[in-house]
Amino acid sequence: MRALLRDLHYTLRQLRKSVGFTLTAVLTLTVGIGGVTAVFSIVEGVMLRPLPFQDSGRLISLHERFEQDSHELRMSAPDVLTFQREGQAFSGVGGFIASAYELTGAGAPFKARAERVTSFVFPLLGIEPVLGRVFTQQEDDAASAVTVISYGLWKERFHSHANVLGTTIDLDRRPYTIIGVMPRSFEFPLDAGRLSHRDLWVPMSFTPIEKKSEGNNFDYSAIARLKPGITMAQAQQDVDRIVKEIQAQYGAGSGFYEVGFSHGSHARRVE
After folding, report:
1. How many Å apart are CA 179 and CA 200, to the nearest integer?
2. Is residue 14 pLDDT above 80, yes or no?
3. For residue range 181-222, what is the model confidence (pLDDT) as tens digits?
């Protein structure tokens, strides 16, 4: 019985890590940051049900992890910006991080679940709002107080009125203008193992402190889209090049490289 429970616990733990996904390729490369070795990885994921995004087979996610620890980390803000700026195998790289705001001005105040996202995220996903638009690069860079809201928030708090565009709500007592409403089925990010409910999305607008947080804040996530005709092997070469630039920036030595493949929830790593 103990052995059965142990096996069941292991299986559930593995499914929790990969539920909804069948990983088809994992490419990782280590880079030293401030004396701590981390691993950059490209993960090409295919949902057990198709990803609800345009041409989802070309979407990948970027991750880091400590070499001595199998626990997967997200990324630091400077590294998101480096991949966004230097990636040549990708048509774009988008960063995002979970947030929450006290929302007022739309009925009773409540704590809204939000996501700060860079302007590249929505175009990468290929999903258009049902009303209005998403924010631009200029609005992201300028930290403009604009927001795109979920279909659920639009229905529950604004009664599905088309004149919601231009309405102002307060997020943590700062006024934000609603510029778009996403479709009913839109969820982002996709949280493994549970519903991914977000009430709204706001520009990432990295602060000066975030841009300088080199290797000490791994709370950010990133997605990218492969350019047409680019293979995972070619993306690997591009990541190798970018990581070398990050190594030079942090003054780190050469890293460790590994390639892995996994099928279903049973991973096999080749070193």
Report:
1. 11
2. no
3. 999 989 998 765 455 689 999 999 999 999 987 656 788 988
Other Cβ atoms less than 10 A from the Cβ of 41: the count is 21
Q: Which residues of 205-217 are buried (b: 16+ CB within 10 A; e: fewer)?
A: bbeeebeebebee
Which has the closest alpha carbon to 121: 180, 66, 71?
180
Mark out the alpha helices in the chain (DSSP H runs): 2-18, 77-86, 121-125, 137-141, 151-158, 208-211, 232-250
pTM assigned to the model: 0.74
Position 145 scores a pLDDT of 98
Nearest Cα neighbor of 165 from 122, 202, 130, 116 is 130
199 pairs with which residues across the strands? none
Q: How far apart are CA 161 and CA 31, in angstroms?
A: 50
At 265, phi and psi to the nearest 5? -100, 10
Token digits of residue 249: 């920036």
Report how far residue 169's alpha carbon sits from residue 92's, in angstroms, rounded to the nearest whole number: 30
The dihedrals phi and psi of 171, each to the nearest 5 degrees, come to -115, 115
Q: Which helix (H) or strand (E) holds 80?
A: helix 77-86
- Are 126 and 153 within 8 A, CB to CB? no
